[in-house]
Amino acid sequence: MSPRTEKQLAEHRTAKREQIVSDALFLFATRGYFNTSISDIAKEVKMSKGLLYSYFENKEQLLNAAIDFALKEATELNLTEDQLKELTPKEIIKEIIEGFFTVLEEKKELWSLIVSLAIHVGSIPSVHTTISKVYKDLTLQLQELFVSMGHPDPENEAFKLGALIDGIGIQYMVFGESYPLRKIKENIINGYMNQKK
Questions:
Q1: Cβ(181)–Cβ(188) under 8 Å?
Q2: Quick one: which of 98, 94, 135, 96 has its CA closest to 114?
Q3: By three-state DSSP, how is residue 167 classified?
Q4: What one-character-per-residue DSSP string does 84-105 give?
Q5: Residue 102 domain-assigned (yes or no)
Q6: What CATH number is given to the structural domain containing 74?
Q7: Distance of alpha carbon 40 from its chain centroid, rounded?
Q8: Is the Cα torsion angle 25, 29, 31, 33 positive or negative in sign?
Q9: Is the residue at 43 inside a domain?
Q10: What digits encode the pLDDT tens for the residues 131-188?
Q11: How far apart are CA 95 and CA 42, in angstroms?
């Protein structure tokens, strides 16, 4: 077997890093950040603590990578640029809302982690920076869509939709399967789709 090329080594390292982030995300979501140690993560990814530290300097750095991954996965649309170009701003808003509800139903542990960290954000300043950046980017994207829709107060509407989504996520976590998730989703989508202009 011949030695790996630099490109293969870089690809292997990137794949391993993604696996570490994914496994750490699962542990943080199921056990909580403060109840998960670097040893727990190393054991989960089947590597030594020393090797894990060659990927991430400390648990907080790993947490930030996991949050960045989680928030992007929770807010990313599964559409190509060409598909996006063919949608109206209202249809894009609908896709964003649909995507959020899909993540909420299919990846409840992911949302659980996001909510948990948002609550404890003051005790981990770097997490505040990471969460704030992703939320700010999402709010600006929503604001642009509301401008395109001719909304009279696009900035406020973007913040309102973000708060509504966060609140629904928290309530769904509290009430579980008895929460009328699909009805609420339809109500929100219909509200935006039936707006004038």
A1: no
A2: 135
A3: helix
A4: HHTS-HHHHHHHHHHHHHHHHH
A5: yes
A6: 1.10.357.10
A7: 23
A8: positive
A9: no
A10: 788 788 889 989 999 999 889 999 999 999 989 988 898 898 888 889 999 999 999 9
A11: 37
